[in-house]
């Protein structure tokens, strides 16, 4: 036994202090962690804290809360009310009559409205594009038609050789007096090459621009750093809109690791015209106010006297930590339960929660054909292995899994229910998109749109290989271990 000055056994004292602190952390965690949290998430956090109390606690303090700063929550509440007022205006003459929709879809639309979504609006057109460079050409061409304003919002927005035409179009319209406003996510801007050039380009072309969800504690700007604005949208004069999964960046994301592996992203963007563009505009205006504190005045009474050029019924569903419920998750689950014949899902990051898995199992049990399109290779190791951990359960439930062949990352995000309803947007089928990211999805009712989307999934199928249960059973034990660990870490929310 070793004694130090004053006859105190300091090694023993420090041992007792460490033991007491460790156990206090564990006891407090039992009371704090599970509150208002999914059981799976709560259990994962408790396991992390019980295994490594101090590191686990520090990690929990950094990314354990989905709460936004109070000032942002107050702004979000004001925006939710503003969007609700817009929705009330839209409902006057533009809302799809309930008798036009089948009963299950009517229920889903009402659910969305209760959660903060726009109403379902009639009279829209929508065209799809999966060609990466052609998508930018279409955006640039539409921007060049602008008379009053162009609103651009992307999770990743970079001025590079591939996106140069879009930046040139913004520069041209700004030069003739069109107001150009741009939002881009702060963390993604810092992480991706070209941040300095992009900032300079936006300033030089005369755009008003701002980072979304900036993490700059020295400026008093801080929230959980992995709460991100994942939306991708463009609005031109309230008449033309773009939304979907594609970021405004080269298909390699300009990263050496991707170029070394030859990886390129395959995405889906939707060009829309008609009343639904007002829904996209409302989402942009809300995000603009959150980041700049400025209320825009583009939406007036005259705004709602819009043309209805098509036959599609569309509903915009914004979601994120600023809403009380997980809007996208609840709408998605309700639609999956409404399926009578088939479900086709495309998601680059498929890490579902229990409600999604239950809905898919219930679908196959009642004879619904279910297929899932994912990438054969992955760009994010943890998510890739977490996703793989669900494959056996899905295959045994009767879900057909198609893996899009390399060197492409299938980054499109959409799903189809039967022959009349589809959902497209920025939201993955994973717990991050459901609980942490700010996303935008669009529910579309119309056979022509579903047929167009079916042609795209046919293309996916032709360029994919089907995963079988026989192949999956040959997975090595190390691979299974990695998948299982990744699945646990995916629940740390």
Report what the structure shows:
The protein is an alpha/beta fold. The protein has three domains: 5-63; 70-86 and 123-308, Endonuclease Chain A (Endonuclease, Chain A); 327-490, Endonuclease, Chain A. 45% of the residues lie in helices and 19% in strands. It is built from 19 helices and 17 strands. The protein has helices at 10-32, 39-51, 53-63, 70-91, 103-115, 132-143, 164-175, 186-191, 195-204, 256-261, 276-292, 327-338, 354-365, 381-388, 391-397, 431-435, 447-462, 469-472, 477-490, and strands at residues 121-129, 149-154, 179-185, 208-212, 232-236, 240-244, 264-266, 269-273, 312-319, 342-346, 369-375, 400-404, 408-410, 414-417, 421-425, 439-445, 464-467. A hairpin with a 3-residue loop joins strand 5 (232-236) and strand 6 (240-244). The protein starts with 9 loop residues before the first helix and ends with a helix.
Mean pLDDT across residues: 87
- Widest sheet, order of strands: 4-3-2-5-6-8-1-9-16-15-14-10-11-12-17
CATH superfamily of the largest domain, by name, is Endonuclease Chain A
Radius of gyration, in Å, reads 24 Å
What's the tally of helices? 19
What general outline do the C-alpha atoms trace?
globular
What is the CATH topology assignment of the largest domain? Endonuclease, Chain A
The span between the termini is: 45 Å
CATH class of the largest domain: Alpha Beta
């Amino acid at each position: 036994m070793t004694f130090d000055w004053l006859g105190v056994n300091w090694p023993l004292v420090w041992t007792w202090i460490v033991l007491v602190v460790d156990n206090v952390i564990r006891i407090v965690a039992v009371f704090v962690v599970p509150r208002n949290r999914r059981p799976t998430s709560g259990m994962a956090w408790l396991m992390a804290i019980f295994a490594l109390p101090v590191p686990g606690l520090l990690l929990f303090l950094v990314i354990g809360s989905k709460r936004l700063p109070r000032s942002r929550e107050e702004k979000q509440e004001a925006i939710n009310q503003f969007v609700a007022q817009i929705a009330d205006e839209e409902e006057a003459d533009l809302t799809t009559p309930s008798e036009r929709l089948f009963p299950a879809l009517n229920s889903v639309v009402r659910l969305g409205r209760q959660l903060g979504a726009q109403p379902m609006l009639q009279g829209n057109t929508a065209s799809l594009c999966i060609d990466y460079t052609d998508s930018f050409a279409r955006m640039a061409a539409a921007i060049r038609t602008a008379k009053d304003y162009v609103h651009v919002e992307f999770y990743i927005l970079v001025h590079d050789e591939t996106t140069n035409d879009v930046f040139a179009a913004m520069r041209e319209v700004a030069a003739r007096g069109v107001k150009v406003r741009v939002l881009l996510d702060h963390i993604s801007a810092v992480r991706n090459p070209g941040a300095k050039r992009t900032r300079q380009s936006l300033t030089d072309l005369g755009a008003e621009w701002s980072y979304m969800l900036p993490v700059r504690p020295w400026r008093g700007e801080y929230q959980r750093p992995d709460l991100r604005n994942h939306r991708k949208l463009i609005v031109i004069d309230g008449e033309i809109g773009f939304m979907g999964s594609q970021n405004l960046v080269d298909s390699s994301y300009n990263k050496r690791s991707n170029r070394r592996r030859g990886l390129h992203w395959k995405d889906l963007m939707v060009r829309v015209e008609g009343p639904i563009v007002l829904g996209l505009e409302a989402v942009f205006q809300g995000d603009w106010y959150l980041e700049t504190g400025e209320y825009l005045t583009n939406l007036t009474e005259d705004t709602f006297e819009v043309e209805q050029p098509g036959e599609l019924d569309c509903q915009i569903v914004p979601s994120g930590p600023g809403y009380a419920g997980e809007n996208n998750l609840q709408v998605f689950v309700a639609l999956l339960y409404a399926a009578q014949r088939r479900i086709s899902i495309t998601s680059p990051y498929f890490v579902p929660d229990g409600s999604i898995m239950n809905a898919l199992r219930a679908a196959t049990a009642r004879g619904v054909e279910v297929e899932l399109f994912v990438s054969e290779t992955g760009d994010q190791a943890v998510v890739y292995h977490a996703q793989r951990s669900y494959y056996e359960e899905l295959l045994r439930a009767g879900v057909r899994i198609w893996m899009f062949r390399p060197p492409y990352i299938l980054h499109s995000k959409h799903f189809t229910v039967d022959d009349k309803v589809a959902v497209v947007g920025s939201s993955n089928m994973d717990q991050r998109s459901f609980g942490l990211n700010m996303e935008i999805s669009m529910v579309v009712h119309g056979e022509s749109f579903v047929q167009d989307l079916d042609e795209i999934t046919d293309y996916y199928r032709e360029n994919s290989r089907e995963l079988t249960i026989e192949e999956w059973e040959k997975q090595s034990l190390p691979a299974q271990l990695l998948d299982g660990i990744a699945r646990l870490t995916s629940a740390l929310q």
